[in-house]
Amino acid sequence: MGTVFSFDVRGGEPAAVQAALEEAIARLHRVDEVFSTYREDSQISRLVRGELTVEECDPEVAEVLELGAEAERVSDGWFSTRYEGQLDPTGIVKGWAAERAALHLAAAGASGVSVNGGGDVQLCGVPGPHRPWRVGVSDPLRPGSLAAVISAAGVDELAVATSGTAERGAHIVDPRTGRSAVTDLLAVTVVGPRLTWVDAWATAAFAMGSRAGLDWLESLPDVEALLVTAGDEVRCTGGLAQRLG
User: Across the strands, what pairs with 135?
Assistant: First the structure.
């Protein structure tokens, strides 16, 4: 998927957790094989060329396409699984894959799980007694500094995803124009229970811009967000303060 995944897994029966970790890693490699738009032989590439139908692909393809369609509906088209007129679900695959890996490890008995896929994180459980998971949010204007620290205190599952230009440049596309999103934002960090959705919402909100993006994020249930503008202004949803720490 063109990025690095890292795992922090605590507790559980060692043999069971190790087996689950190995399976989670194998699944990530399989996801890359199936969904990569850079592999000529991936199922997505073959689907785009008309060599396969969705029904002939792995069941996960239909699952991801349904998730992408739901993200597009909820965002009123600001999130899309198409790029330059062709099917491209990579905008939702990474978050979905990392979330699935974390839930798999938690189901195997791990008491604390953190799966980080290219800076987007799915958390389950706790890292230790009376210790919540904490995730630092990079400051896009001050490399090496943090804009905030998100705490998972009080919840069993939390995900944190950031979309912006600081790490990868202007890579986010406005689906309404097909060109790079013209926005006053440098970064959008979204917090919620599941990484599949917060990753998609961060991308959509970035394309919307700070005013429309913040209003839309405020309307979503169980979602909080932090937006940083090019003018060094920080805007937050009303409940974000409860997740800082």
Answer: 150
Are 133 and 237 in contact by the 8 Å Cβ rule? The answer is no
CA 244 to chain CA mean position, Å: 19
3-state secondary structure of 236: strand
From CA 170, how far away is CA 168, in angstroms rounded?
A: 7
150-199 residue pLDDT tens:
999 999 999 999 998 755 555 567 776 666 666 889 999 999 999 999 99
Alpha helices in the chain (DSSP H): 14-35, 43-48, 59-74, 90-107, 195-208, 210-219
User: Within 13 A of 105's CA, how many CA atoms are on the CB side?
Assistant: 31
Pair 204, 78: CB distance under 8 Å: yes
Spacing of C-alpha 61 from chain mean position: 17
Contacts of 181 (CB under 8 A, 6+ apart): 170, 172, 173, 174, 206, 207
- SS3 letters across 105-163: HHHCCCCEEEEEECCEEEEEECCECCECCEEEEECCCCCCCEEEEEECCCCCEEEEEEE
User: Are the C-beta atoms of residues 98 and 116 closer than 8 Å to each other?
Assistant: yes
Rounded to whole angstroms, how far apart are CA atoms 110 and 93? 24
Residue 180's identity, in one-letter code, is S
Chain CA centroid to CA 48, Å: 24
Task: Look up tokens 């978050």; give the residue.
Answer: 95
Rounded Cα–Cα distance for residues 3 and 171 (Å): 15
Cβ count near 145 (within 10 Å): 10
Evaluate if pTM is beyond 0.85: yes
Nearest to 135 by CA among 105, 108, 115: 115
